[in-house]
Automatic annotation (TrEMBL), chain B:
It catalyses: a 2-oxocarboxylate + 2 oxidized [2Fe-2S]-[ferredoxin] + CoA = an acyl-CoA + 2 reduced [2Fe-2S]-[ferredoxin] + CO2 + H(+). Residues 53-224 form the Thiamine pyrophosphate enzyme TPP-binding domain. The keyword Translocase does not apply. Heterodimer composed of an alpha and a beta subunit. Pfam families: TPP_enzyme_C (PF02775). Its EC number is 1.2.7.11. This is 2-oxoacid oxidoreductase (ferredoxin). GO terms for molecular function: 2-oxobutyrate synthase activity; pyruvate synthase activity; thiamine pyrophosphate binding. InterPro entries: PorB-like, THDP-binding, TPP_enzyme_TPP-bd. Keywords: Oxidoreductase, Pyruvate.
UniProtKB/TrEMBL annotation, chain C:
It comes from the Archaea. Gene3D superfamilies: 3.40.50.920, 3.40.50.970. It is an enzyme of class 1 (oxidoreductase). This is 2-oxoacid oxidoreductase (ferredoxin).
Length: 379, 319, 411
């Protein structure tokens, strides 16, 4: 049964009250960076508070709990004199909110965000992009123009190779932030660390401040790849007043999965009349993968050397996400999260995990290769 | 009841996952991997029941998304035991009354340790006392309430740090309760057809146990140890290795009770010192050498009972 | 699948009345209603229903699976899931047992599963008390369950049948409580004309939910965890609309019921003497008969007193109530439920009545009479309260709420 589709232009709502504030959004890989991003956000809020600025920080509760390697984001909000900091817990990446975009792993320059939007969706025109990376500022700008920018950007990029200074990367990042943003200066960060009982980290902050590279940026929307590519409309089943059958459901699912902006994704969500009574959805037909949730989480991908491969099937068996087809052995990269299990279980070492930034862009980023060392809860 | 090995060769396993890709589970998630393997073994004529937990929330938490290629229904955290009985009873009665064609349908509950060993203990016990066929309770044991943020459950091992039992200045051990053995509890129910423990290693072990359970002719239970990189503070790539180390250090014992007959599946020879298993895990990083020795000794003591059970061919309670 | 065929009046079976208590009578209806799965757990006073059903099943009087659960929480989980697979189910409880089952009870409504359950209302602990109070049933009125309230054993038996018809209707698909005033119904035996197997078969279409949890309906995923920015109010709206649609379904069902059985009920309200009433006594359940007697006695003394009995709490018949109370100067709500600390210390039924009357053009003086702790009120108490209602029309009452069975000062 074919489902009749109609084009829908999403409604984009903006909230001037929220845009008056300074938002800092810090992106990281779930669990791996949770403690770092929490420290980062907390210190900024503390520094702001010391300067008499109304502030709060949080992770969108809808986005929690974070999972290993899922793109996740924390928000820190700084008020302005006479501008109240209103609660906007379900903040969406639209309009001009984010003054600072802090990125804790360069793989996130290549992927969609926690909200499945472009990194620069919702950014102010003069946003400051702060990245923990050992690649150059030029390369950062180039990557952003290719993958994650579809609007004007007349701001700054700041890079810092944080783990080189301190494995607790929040602190060099804070120093680098002070270099790039006058609103949160070095002294208030150092004082904030005193208040938080983290005096030992002040040296890392100073070193980050010194070592950071800063560059002014001037990019027009038309110069970016995503501006040309991005599709804002969605195609939805025509509303008949009936609740959905599996075919109608799959059509909605496809529209949501293929949505390229946050407003498009919201537009793909059904109105209540379409919901089958009893909270009914439909899984994929056996043999198919779940369309509604492809996973751009991976910061590294498996490369299988088919000459070495003995077709033992252990990588298919042991992939936690079932992303490796059984026959022939092949990785469905859309569903790979880069956990690295396949590399470990391969008995002939035919699989090698390669960072996405290296695979896709030929760049070597020391920060991405650091060992997983999570030892404290971030939550 | 069939005790033949259904899946002899990894090259001959069913290629289809009925719990498939495209979900919000952690990279390296042990329970998700276990779920995949179990779904392969169960096949398409299966209904999954999902009590609240990681294997509920992480497989959703959006809208217009589902990784279940077979019927799936949520139930409450403590509802797993009873929900399965409701499903099994409905199927059987509808078939008996001619309202549905006669068919073998598996009913598999994927319940976490918190769900099945704590809040749903009573319902699970009720479920095990009935005689519905093709009913399998899986306890995916990641040793804490992970979805709510790593809180201790009654299967959290001694010495593990959790958010409810953090290692601190005046309480340096972390969790001081001892791990509850749910497979043992299940086997103590009269006439339970099949009870087993499993983990991700050796390959095919879990699949064969699922197959045996579903063909055992009555409610069955498999207690599966499944490492959790988020809550155990381990590298996502280490999940399978940790399963293997759990078995090789004797921390996790692989056994089956088939209509009351005890069978020890694996005897680590020699048994590795437990520190090999504990060292990669951040949740044990606060333990001193003497603490790890204590754990190793506990394992050594407990193994006397597993050896005795193996000799007798019947379960001897190790406490 | 049988279509609903209207039967000509001559063909209506008129079976003989049997003297059954409420527990037995309800069980007898469940027996003929082609129920598939029953889950039982003992608690007074509803347990007799399950005892009767277990006995019938053991003797082969009908085919159903009866599961003895380990708790009420499990009991209601069992029927919730059996219903999702496509089985017609029955459960029940009382008092704190019902409270223990709160989690699956709420989820059952919010996931639109047409479970039918009898509540033998009973005072909640503490203290333990076998007496009758309404709060165990009424505390669930927020979640989407349809709630009907029986006056007699006969009505309880009849409501059980109609509950399946309404709950399972595709326009509704909501669970249904049949509430009855504890032991006053379950343990009191009166002549009951049973619903026959033929009547039930003709009246009830087979239960067929749109999507079952069953491999033959494909990979249905039910009750996924959601992110509210994506979906949230929409899933609640379906419940709201189902309740709104249920009114029409209820009216149709009772009309059909009369055709098959000859027993007529006005669907939402039973009103006596309300055409010209100046004073109204509003209540539910078994003690309405006593109130009707008091009303008629006062009529013979020249007071225009009428009674309004609610047969449904959910959906609440607000429009019908406003119409019935048109022209009334003062009314009293007679209830057995409480809401401690509520505005003016009034009870739950009062809240529903007062909220409805807020929309009326003319609002009568409204008093609340709380009979709590399970102590049975008498005709004497009902006479007192009726007189207070009449008095309140002339003189502003000193109090709003009255605890007439209380020993001690009613402050």
């Amino acid at each position: 049964m074919t489902v009749k589709l109609v084009k829908v232009t999403p409604k984009v709502e903006r909230y001037p009250e929220y845009e008056e504030l300074d938002w800092v959004i810090a992106h990281g890989l779930g669990v791996d960076h949770t403690a770092d991003i929490t420290s980062f956000s907390q210190t900024i809020a503390q520094a702001g508070s010391i300067k008499g600025i109304e502030t709060y920080y949080y992770m969108r509760y809808d986005d929690s709990p974070e999972r290993n390697y899922i793109p996740m984001a924390f928000y820190t909000v700084l008020g302005k004199p006479k501008v109240p900091v209103l609660l906007h817990e379900e903040v969406e990446p639209v309009g001009e909110l984010f003054k600072v975009i802090a990125v804790f792993s360069s793989s996130l320059l290549l992927q969609k965000t926690a909200q499945r939007a472009l990194l620069f969706d919702g950014a102010k025109k003069d946003a400051i992009l702060l990245v923990n990376t050992s690649i150059t500022t030029d390369d950062v700008v180039r990557l952003v123009k290719k993958y994650n920018l579809a609007q004007d950007w007349f701001g700054k990029v700041v890079t810092i190779s944080a783990a080189k200074i301190d494995s607790a990367i929040a602190y060099p990042m804070l120093g680098a932030l002070a270099r790039g943003w006058d609103r949160i200066d070095l002294d208030s960060i150092l004082t904030a660390l005193d208040v938080l009982g983290k005096e030992k980290k002040k040296e890392s902050v100073r070193k980050g401040y010194e070592a950071a590279s800063v560059k002014e940026v001037h990019v027009l929307a038309e110069e970016t790849e995503m501006f040309k590519k991005i599709k804002r409309e969605v195609e939805l089943p025509e509303f008949t007043g009936e609740f959905w059958t599996p075919d109608v459901y799959y059509a909605y699912q496809k529209a949501a999965a293929e949505a390229q902006t946050y407003p498009s994704r919201i537009a793909a969500m059904p109105r209540w009349e379409v919901l089958a009574p009893g909270l009914i959805e439909f899984g994929p037909q056996p043999g198919k993968r779940n369309l509604g949730f492809t996973t751009p989480w991976r910061w590294q991908r498996p490369i299988i050397d088919m000459n070495k491969c003995t077709d033992c099937k252990l990588c298919h068996y042991y992939c936690p996400d079932g992303a490796i087809d059984f026959a022939p052995i092949k990785v469905d990269i859309d569903y790979c999260k880069g956990c690295g299990t396949c590399e470990k279980v391969c008995p002939v070492k035919a699989i090698k995990m390669v960072p996405e930034i290296e695979y896709l862009e030929g760049l070597r980023d020391e920060e991405v290769l650091r060992r997983f060392e999570q030892r404290e809860y971030g939550f | 009841m069939s005790s033949q090995v259904a899946f002899k060769n990894i090259k001959e396993i069913p290629p289809v996952d009925y719990y498939t890709s495209g979900r919000r589970t952690c990279a390296g998630c042990g329970p998700a991997l276990g779920y995949r393997i179990i779904s392969k073994a169960a096949g398409p004529n299966t209904i999954f029941i999902g009590p609240t937990g990681c294997m509920y929330v992480a497989n959703a938490h959006q809208f217009l998304t589902s990784p279940y290629a077979v019927p799936w229904h949520h139930t409450q955290l403590g509802g797993g035991g009873a929900a399965a009985i409701g499903v099994a009873s409905a199927l059987r009665t509808l078939m008996l009354k001619g309202k549905r064609k006669l068919e073998d349908i598996n009913v598999v509950v994927m319940g976490g340790d918190g769900a099945m060993a704590d809040i749903g203990f009573s319902g699970l016990s009720m479920g095990l006392s009935y005689d519905y066929q093709r009913l399998l309770y899986i306890i995916y044991d990641n040793e804490a309430y992970m979805n709510t943020g790593v809180q201790a459950s009654s299967t959290t091992p001694w010495g593990a740090t959790t958010t409810f039992t953090p290692a601190g200045k005046v309480k340096p051990i972390g969790n001081t309760r001892l791990k509850k053995n749910m497979a043992l509890v299940a086997a103590a129910h009269p006439k339970v057809k099949y009870v087993a423990t499993a983990t991700l290693w050796p390959p095919l072990d879990l699949m064969n146990k699922v197959h045996r359970a579903l063909n055992a002719g009555g409610p069955t239970l498999i207690h599966v140890l499944l490492p959790c990189p988020k809550g155990w503070f381990t590298n996502p790539s280490e999940t399978v290795d940790l399963s293997r180390l759990a078995v090789e250090t004797g921390m996790w014992v692989l056994w089956e009770s088939i209509e009351g007959q005890f069978k020890l599946n694996y005897r680590p020879k020699p048994r590795k010192h437990v520190r090999e298993y504990l060292a990669p895990q951040g949740r044990f990083s606060h333990l001193k050498d003497e603490d790890m020795e204590k754990i190793d000794k506990m394992i050594e003591e407990e193994w006397k009972f597993w050896e005795e059970s193996a000799k007798l061919g019947r379960l001897v309670v190790p406490y | 699948m049988s279509a609903i065929k209207p039967m000509p009046p001559v063909a209506i079976e008129k079976p003989k009345a049997k003297v059954w208590n409420g527990a037995r009578a309800i069980a007898e209806t469940v027996k003929v209603a082609d129920v598939d799965v029953i889950a039982a757990y003992p608690i007074r006073p509803y347990t007799g229903i399950m005892n009767a059903l277990a006995s019938m099943i053991a003797d082969g009087e009908f085919t159903a699976d009866i599961i003895v659960a380990d708790s009420e929480h499990s009991q209601f989980e069992v029927v919730k899931h059996a219903s999702a697979v496509g089985a017609r189910v029955f459960a029940g409880s009382s008092g704190v047992g019902l409270a223990f089952a709160a989690e699956p009870i709420i989820v059952t409504a919010l996931s639109q599963l047409p479970v039918v359950a009898a509540i033998g209302t009973r005072a909640l602990d503490d203290p333990g008390n076998f007496g009758m109070e309404w709060s165990d049933a009424l505390m669930f009125r927020d979640f989407g369950w349809l709630i009907s309230w029986a006056k007699t054993v006969q009505e309880a038996a009849d409501m059980t049948l109609v509950a399946y018809r309404v709950a399972e209707d595709r326009r509704v698909l909501l669970p249904h409580f049949i509430a009855l005033d504890g032991a006053a119904i379950t343990h009191v035996a009166t002549p009951v004309v049973p619903v026959t197997k033929q009547q039930a078969t003709e009246f009830l279409p087979p239960y067929r939910p749109p999507y079952r949890i069953d491999p033959q309906d494909g990979p249905v995923t039910k009750a996924q965890h959601i992110a509210p920015s994506l979906i949230g109010p929409e899933e609640r709206k379906t419940i709201d609309v189902a309740q709104k649609r249920s009114k029409q379904v209820i009216a149709e069902a009772w009309k059909d019921f009369a055709k098959y059985t000859g027993r007529e009920y006005t669907p939402f309200l039973e009103t006596i003497g309300m055409e010209d009433a100046e004073f109204a006594l509003i209540g539910m359940g078994a003690y309405m008969k006593d109130l009707e007697l008091v009303a008629s006695r006062l009529r013979s003394k020249g007071h225009k007193v009428g009674t309004v009995r609610l047969r449904y709490v959910r959906p609440f018949p607000a429009e019908e109530l406003i119409n019935a109370l048109g022209g009334v100067k003062a009314a009293g709500v007679i209830e057995f439920g409480y809401s401690f600390g509520s505005p003016f210390g009034t009870g739950s039924l009062y809240h529903e009545v007062a909220t409805s009357l807020y929309e009326a053009d003319a609002k009568p003086t409204l008093l609340d009479f709380l009979f709590l702790g399970g102590r049975e009120p008498t005709v004497e108490h009902f006479t007192q309260l009726a007189e207070k209602v009449i008095e309140s029309a002339h003189k502003k009452p000193q109090k709003k709420t009255y605890w007439l069975t209380l020993r001690g000062e009613d402050i």
